[in-house]
Amino acid sequence: MNRVRVAALPKTPWRNNGGTTAAIAAEPEGASFDDCLWRVDISDIGRSGPFSLLAGLDRTIVPLASGLVLTIDGARHELGLFDSFAFSGDSTTTCDIAASMQAFNALTRRGKATASVARWPGAGRIAGPGALVFYVARGGFSVVEGGGRPTQVETGSAVVVRNVEQPVAFEPTAAWSLALSVLIRLA
């Protein structure tokens, strides 16, 4: 289990310069959108406008603030805070925002991997197989893999387990804590 502090990650500009992204984890490690099997990141959405076309990828986005509206292939979708929304990277997508915001993203290469995104306001347990990214959006969590030692994960940090062999259990360290998980399975 590897702990990642998102604020310490390098940010890469979007292809359309509408924001930046910081990769929490990717397969293979360090892969870009063009050559990844899967990727989980945090995006800074700087302005309203088009999203980059990511052909061949399936996307799931979770707004980390209120006020994100996506228009995908002409259909308008108002996303709620911490609600996950899946769509194709092949789609023509634009966003409307009232102010700069962040979003949590899971991307998988279509036909090669799938991602299951979940929201956790309390304790839980995730079993494999697959790779796991567990991101703390608010508060803090104590996370343990199998019978190992607990790892404390605070807001803006994640733990990455590249191959979940034993269940990963977690519990909040504050009443208002909330985490997002992505379990990635290869096809």
Helical fraction equals under 10%
CATH class category label of the largest domain: Mainly Beta
Assign the structural class, choosing from mainly alpha, mainly beta, alpha/beta, alpha+beta, or little secondary structure. mainly beta
The CATH homologous superfamily of the largest domain is termed Jelly Rolls
Shape category? globular
- The average pLDDT is 95
Query: Strand portion, in percent?
Result: over 45%
Question: Could you please say which CATH topology of the largest domain applies here?
Answer: Jelly Rolls
Which residue ranges are poorly predicted, with pLDDT under 50 across at least 5 consecutive positions? Answer: none
Q: Examine the secondary-structure arrangement and name the CATH architecture of the largest domain.
A: Sandwich
Number of strands: 19
Give a summary of the structure in a few sentences.
The protein is mainly beta and 187 residues long.
What does this molecule look like?
The chain has about 190 residues and is mainly β. It folds into two domains: about 5-110, Jelly Rolls; about 115-185, Jelly Rolls, CATH 2.60.120.10. It is about 0% helix and about 55% strand. It has no helices and 19 strands. It has strands spanning about 1-5, 10-15, 20-25, 40-45, 50, 55-65, 70, 75-80, 85-90, 95, 100-110, 115-120, 125, 130-140, 140-145, 150-155, 155-160, 170, 180-185. The strands form four sheets. The chain has a six-stranded antiparallel β-sheet, with no helix packed on it. The radius of gyration is 16 Å and the shape is globular.
